[in-house]
Every structure is written in structure tokens, then in C-alpha cells.
Specification:
9 strands
């Protein structure tokens, strides 16, 4: 989403003005110890819990990642973005997880919660471009052309679709296959941007 090519194009091509908007959310991950478990959580399934945006998945050695979402304007955002692992903050984090994702709460012990505050949160941007093709010498695809909020579930999918369509148009024999791909792809990407 921080494409150098797109940024350079926006600086040098008159009229090319990608819309870039902050996600409005930052994510930060707490990790359990090895072989953690919780009743009701199947380690072979990724779990998503309600409107507070808590997501769990297992990694290697039975370590669980519990991703928490600090949504702009939400009362829990300040706590979730804090980097101060005070006893009060750790207790607040535990209470937040117990309220919002009670099945995930047993995965994390006191040290796991304390370590959470030392990890850097990350955010991003929704990117929508009004064009993709530039004189048949450069074509924006993937996150350079369109970046979405991860929970939409369309980041990798839309990038793979770009690759498929690029191969299809490249094999078409057209002298203007970048422009042809742009004409076919832009309506979908505009809709994806609005959805994101």
C-alpha cells in the first residue's frame, strides 16, 4: 500500500490522484506460549470474534496469535495502543478480551498480556486509483493499485485476480493490453474500494 511506483506517478503524472484513506483501525498481536489451548477453540480454525475485531489463529508449536483491533473512536483504543504494561493496563486488556472474545481469554497468561504492550501496532490505508495503465510501459496491480482493510478478506484475492487477468490480457495479442486490462478491471476495483 506504500507503493513507490504509485507515489512517483502521483508526483509526476498530471491528474493522477489516488485516493488514500487511513484504515481507521490499528492492529496489534498478543502471542500465547507454546501449546496453549482453550476450551471451545479448534486450533485448525481461524476464529473471529464480534464487533471488537479480535481474531485468533495458531502458529507453529501451538502458539496462538490473538490480534486485537484498536478502532479509532472506540473507548478501548487508548488501552489497546498503550505501550505501558502497568498492572492496571494488563488487567484492562484481560477484561477487554474476556468481554469481547471470552473463548480466547484462556490462551493468554499474565506475561503474554504484558508482552503485548511492547509490540508495535500497525495500521494502513485503503487505496483507490482512478487509473492503472500508463502508456503501455507501466501497470499498477495488487496493493499498488488497490489496498483494502484486511478484514474485507479481499487483499490477496484481488491481487491474485490482477495476476490472472494480466496473464490473460498479455496472451490476447492486443497492442494495448495494459489499457484493455484497465478498462476491464477498474469497475471492480472502484467497487472494492467503496466496500473497503
Amino acid at each position: 500500500m506504500w507503493s513507490t511506483a504509485r507515489t512517483a506517478l502521483a508526483e509526476q503524472v498530471p491528474g493522477f490522484e489516488p485516493r488514500i484513506g487511513d484504515w481507521g483501525v490499528h492492529f496489534r498481536v498478543a502471542f500465547s506460549g507454546p501449546r496453549a489451548s482453550a476450551p471451545g477453540l479448534d486450533p485448525s480454525i481461524h476464529h473471529i470474534f464480534g464487533p471488537k475485531g479480535i481474531y485468533t489463529a495458531t502458529l507453529s508449536d501451538g502458539v496462538w496469535g490473538v490480534m486485537l483491533s484498536a478502532i479509532d473512536g472506540d473507548e478501548s483504543a487508548e488501552l489497546l495502543l498503550s505501550d505501558d504494561p502497568t498492572g492496571q493496563a494488563i488487567a484492562g486488556l484481560r477484561a477487554h478480551i474476556e468481554r469481547s472474545a471470552p473463548l480466547a481469554a484462556p490462551l493468554l497468561n499474565h506475561d503474554d498480556l504484558a508482552d503485548y504492550f511492547g509490540r508495535k501496532p500497525f495500521g494502513g490505508a485503503v487505496v483507490v486509483c482512478d487509473r492503472l495503465a500508463f502508456d503501455e510501459w507501466l501497470l499498477l496491480i495488487g496493493d499498488a493499485a488497490h489496498s483494502v482493510l484486511p478484514p474485507t478478506g479481499e487483499g490477496v484475492n484481488s491481487g491474485l485476480e490482477d495476476g490472472f487477468l494480466l496473464a490473460e490480457h498479455g496472451a490476447s495479442g492486443s497492442a494495448h493490453w495494459f489499457a484493455d486490462l484497465e478498462a476491464r478491471r477498474l469497475p471492480d476495483l472502484q467497487a472494492l474500494g467503496e466496500y473497503a
